[in-house]
Design goal:
The complex is a heterodimer of chains A (about 240) and B (about 325). With about 240 residues, chain A is α/β, with parallel strands linked by helices. Chain A is built from ten helices and twelve strands. In chain A, the strands form three sheets. A six-stranded mixed sheet of chain A has the order 6-7-8-3-9-10, with helices on both faces. Chain A has a four-stranded antiparallel sheet with strand order 2-1-4-5. Chain A has a two-stranded antiparallel ribbon with strand order 11-12. Chain A starts with a strand and ends with a strand. With about 325 residues, chain B is an all-alpha fold. Chain B has 13 helices and no strands. Chain B has a single domain, classed as ABC transporter involved in vitamin B12 uptake, BtuC (Orthogonal Bundle). Chain B is globular and about 60 Å long. Chain B starts with a helix and ends with a helix. The chains are: A alpha/beta (about 240), B mainly alpha (about 325). The interface between A and B is medium-sized, with 26 and 26 residues. Chain A: This is Vitamin B12 import ATP-binding protein BtuD. Chain A: Part of the ABC transporter complex HmuTUV involved in hemin import. Responsible for energy coupling to the transport system. Chain A: It holds the Pfam family ABC_tran.
Chain lengths: ~240, ~325
């Protein structure tokens, strides 16, 4: 379990308190610059808050040794470039103790075909899939034990919609094993379909923390994103969210 | 992994064979004069080549990953020039000092110069939040240029003998260190090299930047200064033993990555071994010129230049 109490960071996150419990699949939404990445960095222990405290499984996050934390939580950052022409296989081996790609991961991400290719020659979406695989494989033993904290910053960016759905479905299977997930993105329909909870951020503050039906409402989204939002229901009673100016 | 262990063993065998060959070539161990040559000329020369080559190549391999710039080499990021500046100050200001002071003072001063310039580069890198490899390279070029400028000023205020000493020293030579000095350097260099070459796993994480390494479990705040200090020490020793030697640091890791990939658990020890082998080869080539002391940098640059160009093109095609 992860708990944050009154955490603040410069002008990016202000006085935010949250609880994340086992099996939570939280989708983090909010406009550009609303503080989503900063919040993920804070939750990952990558940066310390100016104010407030964070606890992971009842222990102050700052008391974890980097290696201990790394075995349990992973953070996939938005951009990752290397000046060195590492191959996909090398980049996975270096970070994942030479583990083979687990089958469930391969089924969702399909990276086997470009294992020998240099990372920086892949398309944006392919690079993103490798990045997700590396991030999850780093904590794979903890994932299998259902005690991992998975933090993903815009993992679906650049992914075609087939892979977007496969990834979200995989992540939901992992959370059902007891793992905790927080992922940020801008796909309202993915959040509607796959999130167990949604955190909606605006100007560094958490303006909503609830199930999708409560957060994904026309007035709230219109207000936060300064964009028109219409929610329609299809013949199978699925809610579809449309946005327009 | 298995073939890499075999490859490391092979490099080690080549190194030992080459070292013994350079040591014992044309010598009769039954002859007293030959034994003196072996002990006071060949042994310091061979040890010096091994220590300097291994130190420069291994610390460059390390710096390239830490600064996230494949161009990083002690020469390019200004460590060597800092050492040269201090050596120049010593040679030119202390021209009247005795031979004994020259023998120990010069290495000491260049060592201090290497440490100080590394510290300066580290402070600049930290100011640039350690993310900008090119910022560090630019700062290194600035430090090199500044040192060059100051050395040029020093030329104005010096006598002919000191000038000759300095010019020769700046070109680099494996012949100038005494047995005593080389033996003094051997133990700390070996310990530090061993320490560096086992950091491969942590260094692999740094390929994708410091944040990734931190997320993967590396304590960056401790690791960084430790590694920089270790490489500054090694470069300091190398420069103080042999003056400034161009290109070994840039060439060796590039060549290895080109053919064997990026795993630092292999690249670091292999760089140390190949760096040492390269300088032993330089001794052999330089002997072809029949007793004329050919500046090492001249050879490393002319031999290394084409190989390096080939390696750069290959790497770009990878």
């Amino acid at each position: 379990m992860l708990r944050a109490e009154g955490i603040s960071l410069a002008n990016r996150v202000s006085d935010l308190s949250i609880d994340l419990i086992s099996s939570d699949a939280v989708h983090l939404l909010g406009p550009n610059g609303s503080g989503k990445s900063s919040l993920l960095n804070l939750l990952a222990g990558l940066i310390a808050p100016d104010k407030g405290n964070l606890w992971l499984d009842g222990r102050d996050l700052t008391h974890y040794a980097p290696a201990e934390l790394a075995s349990q939580r992973c953070l996939m950052e938005q951009s990752q470039q290397s000046v060195f022409a590492l191959t996909v296989k090398e980049s996975l081996n270096f970070f994942c103790a030479e583990r083979a790609v687990p089958e469930s991961l391969e089924q969702a991400l399909n990276i086997a075909d470009f294992m020998q290719r240099p990372l920086n020659q892949l398309s944006g979406g392919e690079q993103r899939r490798v990045q997700i695989a590396r991030c999850l494989m780093q904590v794979w033993p903890a994932i299998e034990q259902g005690r991992a904290l998975l933090l993903l910053d815009e993992p679906v960016q650049g992914l075609d919609f087939s892979h977007q759905h496969r990834l979200c479905a995989l992540l939901n299977r992992l959370t059902q094993m007891g793992n905790m997930l927080v992922m940020s993105h801008h796909q309202l329909n993915l959040a509607e379909r796959y999130a167990s909870r949604i955190w909606l951020m605006h100007q560094g503050q958490l303006v909503a923390d609830d199930v999708p039906e409560q957060v994904l409402t026309e007035p709230l989204l219109t207000q936060v994103f300064s964009c028109n939002v219409r929610i329609v229901t299809d013949t199978e009673q699925n809610r579809l969210i449309q946005t327009y100016l | 992994m298995f073939y890499r262990t075999r490859l490391l063993s092979l490099l080690f065998v080549i190194l030992i064979t080459l070292a013994l060959f350079v040591l014992l070539r044309d010598l009769q161990l039954t002859d007293a004069v030959d034994r003196q040559i072996l002990l006071h000329l060949r042994l310091p020369l061979v040890l010096c080549a091994i220590l300097v080559g291994a130190s420069l190549a291994a610390s460059s391999a390390l710096l390239q990953v830490m600064l996230r710039n494949p161009l990083a080499d002690p020469g390019i990021i200004g460590i060597t020039s800092g050492a040269s500046l201090f050596a120049a100050i010593y040679l030119l200001m202390g021209g009247s000092l005795s031979a004994a002071l020259l023998q120990y003072g010069l290495p000491l001063f260049s060592f201090i110069g290497a440490l100080l310039s590394t510290l300066l580069i580290y402070l600049i890198a930290r100011r640039l939040s350690l993310v900008s490899g090119s910022g560090v390279i630019l700062a290194g070029i600035a430090i090199s240029t500044l040192s060059g400028g100051v050395i040029a000023w020093l030329y104005f205020f010096t006598d002919a003998q000191s000038l000759r000493n300095l010019t020769f020293w700046l070109l680099g030579s494996l012949h100038q260190a005494s047995l005593k000095l080389v033996l003094m350097a051997t133990a700390p260099v070996c310990v530090l090299l061993l320490y560096l070459v086992v950091q491969g796993r942590a260094l692999n994480w740094l390929y994708l930047g410091q944040r990734s390494a931190h997320l993967a479990g590396l304590d960056i705040r401790r690791f960084y200064p430790r590694m920089l200090l270790a490489s500054a020490f090694l470069v300091g020793v190398a420069v103080s033993l042999a003056g400034s030697i161009a290109f070994v640091g840039l060439l060796v890791p590039h060549l290895l990555r080109n053919f064997f990939g990026y795993d630092n658990r292999f690249i670091l020890p292999a760089s140390a071994l190949l760096g040492a082998i390269l300088l032993l080869l330089v001794i052999l080539v330089s002997d072809l010129f029949g007793g004329v002391a050919v500046p090492v940098s001249m050879l490393t640059a002319t031999l290394g230049g084409p190989v390096f160009l080939y390696s750069v093109v290959k790497l770009a095609e990878r």
